[in-house]
Amino acid sequence: MALSIHVNGGTEPKQFQEPVENPEFDYSQRGQWLRAAVLGANDGLVSVSSLLMGVGSVKQDVKAMVLAGFAGLVAGACSMAIGEFVSVYTQRDVEMAQMKRDGEKRSPVVDENDPKMEKKERLPSPGLAAGASALAFSVGAVLPLLATAFIRDHKVRMAVVVVVASVALMVFGVVGALLGGAPVAKSGGRVLVGGWIAMCITFGLTKLISLNGM
């Protein structure tokens, strides 16, 4: 709303415009990197924790658990990187093809100020997405691995895996909710319960197979 103020000696009122409030932040802009980071960290944590629980259900040797966990970390990080690279590259190719079709329909002349050119510069980087996913997976996976590497007592080691995984899952869930503007309690609880289910299933099925002599 504009306010008119008359100044002595002036013939025309001066207009003062009230400051316009900044629009709310669009959390969807964080969607891509947030999804990759949270997904990678959660996958690393749940995968390696479940793997440690599975191996620990049939083996009490700490070396066997650490080696299995390390192999899971490396394999999972590579898998996440390759999967994210292919996914983002495919998305990039689709968007580039669509922009090319739109450009051919409008004008063959390239305009540097065209919004299409700006959109092209903002396309996601497959290499960056792959590196971020691999790093996030490794960060999540290394937590339970380091927590169990120096514990000799088998029962204590298994309990530590569950505790460390539970705390980390809650932290990842809360951080993801805060960065994405989602409900904190619901997001953290969903991530925590999902991790528990994965660890219980892996532990139970591995134990069952070992009892059957396989």
TrEMBL record:
Membrane topology: Multi-pass membrane protein
GO cellular component, one term: vacuolar membrane
Membrane-spanning ranges: 65-89, 127-151, 158-179, 191-209
One GO process term, biological-process aspect: intracellular manganese ion homeostasis
Chemical reaction(s) catalysed: Fe(2+)(in) = Fe(2+)(out)
Molecular functions per Gene Ontology: iron ion sequestering activity; iron ion transmembrane transporter activity; manganese ion transmembrane transporter activity
Top-level taxon in the UniProt lineage: Eukaryota
Keywords: Ion transport, Iron, Iron transport, Membrane, Transmembrane, Transmembrane helix, Transport, Vacuole
UniProt subcellular location: Vacuole membrane
Compositional bias segments (type: Basic and acidic residues): 100-123
Free-text function comment from the UniProt entry: Vacuolar Fe(2+) uptake transporter.
Similarity comment: family membership: Belongs to the CCC1 family.
Protein name (Swiss-Prot/TrEMBL): Vacuolar iron transporter
Lineage: Eukaryota, Viridiplantae, Streptophyta, Embryophyta, Tracheophyta
